[in-house]
Amino acid sequence: MLRLQTLFSFLSLLAIAIATHYECLPYPVASLCRIEFISYHPGDQVSFPTGYQQYQIKSSPSAKMISSKVKTFDSELYEAMHRPSSIEMTNTEMQTLILPAELSMGDFSNNHITLVNLSNPENYQITYLDLSSNSLTNIDFISRLVNLEVLLLESNTMDHIPSSALRPLTKLKYLYLEYNYFTSFPWNALPSSMIHLDCYFGSITTAEFSRISVPSLGYLNLQYNSLSTINVTDLLQAAPKLKEAHLYNSHIDSLEMSRIFAELKAHNVSFDEKYDMCNTDDNYERKFGICVHRRPEESTVSIGKAVLLSSLVIVTAVLFLYIVLVVFRHMNR
């Protein structure tokens, strides 16, 4: 029995001795530990320096080493890091995130996360969470993150945004959902605290503002979705503090789009005309200060005029050359 205890103690000491210890790189912020490479699998023995509340695990662009690998971020790894309040862990090929309840700020972008585990029964303290550029399809888990103020979910594979996930987030101010696949959005579940909503380049087919109230909303981006109509009057009533709205959708008729822009302009709401074709394409023209697509007959007339003008220029040039040639021959007689 004594021999077994001795062997066990020896093996424990050996495990501690061979544990991987990570050191922080020099950094001007005393409370931040920056590490360029980490490799961790559940069960690995790892250790980190004490005295840091922020961890930044991020590869340097100039680093000539293999990329970090943390397939699973679990409670053991969090304990080994001495339970910091802020973690930035990007490009580590992470697939599973077991979110610590104590974490206040988390950036786990540019990974392969498909699962976020919220198994801790405690209240989650996180206020800032970046899960952009991952592989999430389901975001039901966010309903428990009631202290969230900033949530980044762009460039995932979500095809559904449940109202039950958004409604409990009464403190949410900034929501980023660009480059996803959901066709509907729970407008009536938007918290009244919302300041900034970005759904750029998605698949949304309807925008319903008549029964919502977002009194603090200052920025809205619905550009390049699949919307066929937008009621700007309802939008401005729902968001009286709106200062910037990007609403261009190719499914909306050009004249209707010009009316939308005119109404925004009348209420001092700024907007962005991406790809202003008025300067380069005869199929576009500027009406009321807005670049819009010409009607088909207008485009046809423009093309006809262009062809006629080109023909006239060619005939004039040929006639001029003929006259010069006649004069030249006459002078040489």
Automatic annotation (TrEMBL):
InterPro entries: Dev_Immune_Receptor, Leu-rich_rpt, Leu-rich_rpt_typical-subtyp, LRR_dom_sf. PROSITE patterns: LRR (PS51450). The keyword Transcription does not apply. The keyword Repeat applies. Keywords: Leucine-rich repeat, Repeat, Signal. It comes from the Eukaryota. Transmembrane segments: none annotated. This is Uncharacterized protein.
